[in-house]
Amino acid sequence: MARSLHLGHLYDATLDDPAEHVTVTIDGDRFGAVTTRSDDRLGDEDLDLSPYFGLPGLIDAHTHLGQALPVAAIRDEGLLSIASVAAGIFQNCELALDAGVTTARDLAGLDGGIVQAIDSGVVRGPRIYPSGPALAQTGGHGSGHTPYRMTDAALCIPGLFQRALVCDGPDGVRLAARTALRRGATQLKVYGSGGVVSFADGPRDVHFTIEELKAAVEEAAARHTYVTSHAHNSEAIRRGIAAGVTCFEHGTYLDEPTAELMANAGASLVPTFMVLEVMRRRSESWGIGPGLLERMAGVGEAMQKALSLARDAGVRIGSGSDLLGPQQIGRAFEIELKTRIIGFRDALRAATIGNAEIMGLAADLGTVESGKLADLIVVDGNPFEDPAVLTDPDKIKVVIKSGVVVKDIRS
């Protein structure tokens, strides 16, 4: 049965300004008509949301919902029970949904098991597109290797979580890619560069050869999907483009020629600002010492410059929170930070239309339009005037996912 939502304001990034007094019809799991409201008559199944501001369901294209362990405890994963790990993951999924994230691309950890659990209704959470275990080279970011202890990313719970698969050489990469796809990966992630918080490398280091990356791209293409690469520096991006990688995470030290190369190749960039702020604030509890904090200095500024370069070159921009650990909250802080650089409209576009395009889901997600999946969030406040309202779960009054009200905290 169709139902109508009567909203005071409605906005998606296809509009110049918010529309006022809007009626949105939902028919099954899809949007029906979106019209200017002519009267306030409500049917039994209709919702009066006239005091509130409607937006498309948010898409977070860089999540680590499965990395629910305290960051300082990652080296002691064997001391934690599977039940504790699962409970933390399920809580992160619920927190994401209640924050207005109706779709999440999980990069390094979750596999098809969590998709089954959410789709069956036993776990509350966003619509998840998992990468399964990410692909990492020996000694590289994500491998778990420290300089003097060769320990892979050890926690392996098929059907739930595994952070990474360590692989070397094209054949090793093929095997790892096929394993991730077998376990339900909807796209592959590779660690194409070192990381800001790494044990044995840095963000300016480059990982995997072009031949290794090509192996991952070929395996993804055989399953009608794509590869995204953790890549902080331009050489890692160039190597990825040469191999056919179509999406890049972070892009911290992107330069102008590489931005133009990305645009010409149709590649996308998913900057991740908020995790840096979170790491600084939680450095003590996360076990981030002075050396790593020093390495983080200037990363935020470099990422701002990279975003501007990519935008000016015409690169498609996405949005990701990159949150780690338990009790992951405040995901839309990423939108707030981007708003300070590119304005709210483009920041929201990145977190809706941009991410939908990157994930190949633009026909179904990203805007409030007839025929698309009915994902909608209803906010108490005006995010144009104060985007911080999106970071407060108490301000996210209603969340609708595929036409179903999954959160309603109106008094």
From TrEMBL:
KW Chloroplast (keyword) present: no
InterPro entries (UniProt xref): Amidohydro-rel (IPR006680), Metal-dep_hydrolase_composite (IPR011059), Metal_Hydrolase (IPR032466), Metallo-dep_Hydrolase (IPR051781), OTAase-like (IPR057744)
GO molecular function: hydrolase activity, acting on carbon-nitrogen (but not peptide) bonds
Domain Amidohydrolase-related intervals: 55-406
SUPFAM superfamilies: Composite domain of metallo-dependent hydrolases, Metallo-dependent hydrolases
Pfam families in the cross-refs: Amidohydro_1 (PF01979)
Keywords: Hydrolase
Name of the protein this chain belongs to: Amidohydrolase family protein
Record organism: Amycolatopsis pithecellobii
